[in-house]
Each structure stands twice: as structure tokens, then as C-alpha cells.
Amino acid sequence: MEDKSELTITLPKLPDSLRHHEPSLRKLEKLLSKDPLENLGKLKQELKKVEKALRTEESDVSKTSVAQYIKLVEQRVLELEALSRKTFGKELEEELKQVGFRLEGHYPLLKSSFYTLEVNFDKSSVTIWFGPKQEKLKVCSLSPKRVAQKLFELHNLITKREFVEKAFLFNLYKACETVANKENKKLEDPLPITSVLLEYTILVRNIAKENYTHYGRVFFSYDLYRLKERKINEHELELITATRAYTRKKKDFLWVPTNDEGVGTYISHLRLRGANNE
After folding, report:
1. 174-193: per-residue pLDDT in tens?
2. Confidence grade of residue 60 (pLDDT, cut at 50, 70, 90)
3. What are the pLDDT digits (tens) for 22-40?
4. Residues 136, 169: one domain?
5. CA angle, corner 234, sides to 230 and 240, nearest 5?
6. Given 43, 73, 88, which residue is the final one in a domain?
7. What average pLDDT does this structure show over 141-157?
8. How far is residue 212's CA from residue 208's CA, in Å, rounded to a whole number?
């Protein structure tokens, strides 16, 4: 994010009584002098630490130029926050375009593909979610370039995994069988999606053994989305939309995309519908 302000603030000479605070004050000075808008979150955190430390010596500070320095820094932070609010969205949009994403929405919730970007100017942070604030993926500093880069990395991690459709469907079928047996149900009955996910994870972990990599809600959601062939062993996989009763607790449902633009559905159960079932 470009910092168009030319204001510089120089740390004054410290009296002997405040010399032990010099490392913290120098760190603050460094953050101010080198790309302060990109490091606004760190700058605010460091300012709070310095202010807290100096409060214990308030009588000494008030008589020095350090007090004026801190006031100038506080004013600078306010100016940077205002500039950030003004320029962040536009610059993020440009950064995302460079990595193939389109930005939509309004503060505090922006959208790009499957993801929600929750902007918090007070904390100088952006939280990246999968779906409409369903699965938290990452918290980034309020930097358009860093957010775009991290979103690109996360998207590739989710979507570029090896995916063998027949193997996924077969393992999913076996997981459904396990859940049906444990819950004394028929394979054609609605089965809780999170129970199926648990059994699927156990199954693929046992198959992969030492080559197993973490597999959770986000990967399962995306794999269900990209699964095109849904017929197996004279059954057809059906995703059942969650009723309001099943969306009260996260453990009872899973958000699954329906297109690349981030539209999706809350799914509570899976069912392997038989040839004679409607």
C-alpha cells in the first residue's frame, strides 16, 4: 500500500532517566520510517507497548521532548489509519487482479471467489474465510499485497490438490457405509455430513499412512463441489440442504460451493439414493 504522506518524525535525544526505553523507541522510529502503512498493525502494537512502559514514569516523560514525540506518533497513526481506509480496497482490487481474482462487496466483508475477506481497520488485519465466514483460513496484516499473495497461496492449496474422482467417490461410499452401520441406518438414509467426513478422514489416513496430509472441512467441501460423477454401485450421491435446525451448530453442517463465484449451500446430510428411491 503506497504511503503518500511525507511526514517524518525523529526521535529526540533521551534523558538518562529514560535511556532504558531507547530500544523500544528506536523500534517505533524504524516502523515509522520504513513503509509505515504496510506495517500499520505492528506500528500500533509497538506504540501501545511504548505508551504502557512510559506510563510508569509519567512524571519524567512529561518534562521531556519524548512526550511531544509520542503525541506526534499518535497523530501519525491516525493519519495512516485514515489513508488506509481510503486506499485499501482499491489497491487490494488491483493486487487481486494480478493473481486472477475479482473483488466484490463492501467493508467490512469483501468477497473474492470462494472466500470472504473480513477487514478490521481497528486491528489493522484481514481475516480470510472459506465461504461466508464459515472456515477461518488465515489472519493477515492490512496489506493489499500480502492479502492477495496469501489468498493466492491458500486457493492453490485447496484447489490444486491431486483429485482422483473415482477414488474419492469410492472412499466416500465406504465412509457412508461405516456411518450407516454405526448409526443402525440404511445406506439410503440421510447420514450426517460431519460423521461421514470423520469416517472418510480415518479411511484415507489408514490408506495413505505416512504419506497422509491433513484433510478437513475445507478440503472436503471443495472436493464435494468438484465431484462430477456421483453414481456408484447402483446408488447416486445426494447432498441434502440443511434446515434451520441444523445450522445452529457448526458441527451439524458444512458449507459447500455451488459455483466459482462463492455461491454455496449449507449441507447437513449425505444420502446414497438407490435406483428405486426418489
Report:
1. 999 999 999 999 999 999 99
2. low
3. 788 888 888 888 788 878 8
4. no
5. 45
6. 88
7. 95
8. 5
CA–CA distance, 166 with 219 (Å, rounded to integer)? 16
Q: How many domains does the chain have?
A: 3
User: DSSP letter at 141?
Assistant: E
The closest of 79, 77, 76, 83 to 1, measured between CA atoms, is 83
The pLDDT of residue 275: 61
Residue-range definition of the domain harbouring residue 141: 92-159
- List CB contacts of 11: < 8 A, sequence separation 6 or more: 25, 26, 28, 29, 69
Sign of CA dihedral 159, 165, 171, 177: positive
Residue keyed to cell 439410503: 188
pLDDT computed for residue 4 by the predictor: 43
C-alpha to C-alpha distances, 95 to 117, 130, 168, nearest whole angstrom: 14, 19, 35
Is there a single domain that holds both residue 248 and residue 187? yes
d(CA 183, CA 153): 39
Q: Is 86 exposed, middle or buried (0-12, 13-18, 19+ CB in 10 A)?
A: exposed
CA 203, 207, 209, 212 dihedral sign is negative
Q: Residue 31: which residues within 8 A CB-CB, separation 6 or more? A: 39, 42, 43, 46
Same domain for 179 and 261, yes or no, is yes
Cis peptide before 257 (omega within 30 of 0): no
Is the separation of the CB atoms in 21 and 50 below 8 Å? Answer: yes
Task: Tell me how far apart the alpha carbons of residues 68 and 74 are, in angstroms, rounded to a whole number.
Answer: 10
C-alpha cell at 152: 493466492
Asked if residues 256 and 225 have their Cβ atoms less than 8 Å apart, the reply is: yes
* Best CA proximity match to 122, nearest among 89, 81, 88: 81
